[in-house]
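Thioredoxin fold domain-containing protein, pasting as requested.
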Amino acid sequence: MRHFLGFVTAFLMALPAIGATMGDDGLHKTDYMRDTFKDMAEDLAEARAEGKRLLVMWEQRGCIYCRKMHEDVLSRPDIDAYVRDNYFVVQMNLFGDVEVTDFDGEALAEKDMAMKWGVMFTPTLMFFPPEVDDGVSAPEAAAVTLPGAFGAETMWDLLVWVNEEGYLSGENFQKYHARMFNARQEAKGAGTGD
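C-alpha cells follow.
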C-alpha cells in the first residue's frame, strides 16, 4: 500500500499545476504564462517556433473578472491543457510599468501601451495570427480581441476557433459558438436517451 501511495504522489506531482496563484503584482499567475521581454515581434516569433498562437492577457490588481476567469474557466482541466498545448501566453498589467515593444517598434510602459492599444477593461484577451506585417500596431495585427470574462464553454469555443483560424472562414465567432453549443446540447440529449 505504501508503494502505491508513493507512486500516486509522484504521479500527481509530475502533473502540471492547474490554476493560478497570486503574484507580487496582484495578478493571477499560471505556470504556462511566459516571462518575456514583452517584445511583441519576438514573442510572436517564439510562439510560431513552438507551433503555438500568441495570446496577450491584459489584467489588473483586484480584477474580480480576472479572478473568475482564472478560478472558474482557465482552471478547468480541458481548457488548461488546451491553452498549454496551443498558446504562448504573455500577461500584461493594465497599470504596469514594464516596457512593452509593439509590433511597430514603439516601446512604452504597459499602462501607456494599454492606452495606445485601446485596452480599457480587464481581462482583455488579444489573439494574434501566426504572421504580422511590419509596421502595424498590435490592435491592427490582432486576429481577435475579446474584452471581458466569459464562461467555460464560450472560452473553449473561442480558443478552438482562434487556434483553427475560424476568423478566416467567414463564420463569425457568435455563429460558430452557437453551432458548437447546439451540437453539445444535442450530444447531451442523445446520451440521456431523450
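Note for the archive: DSSP finds eight helices and eight strands in the chain.
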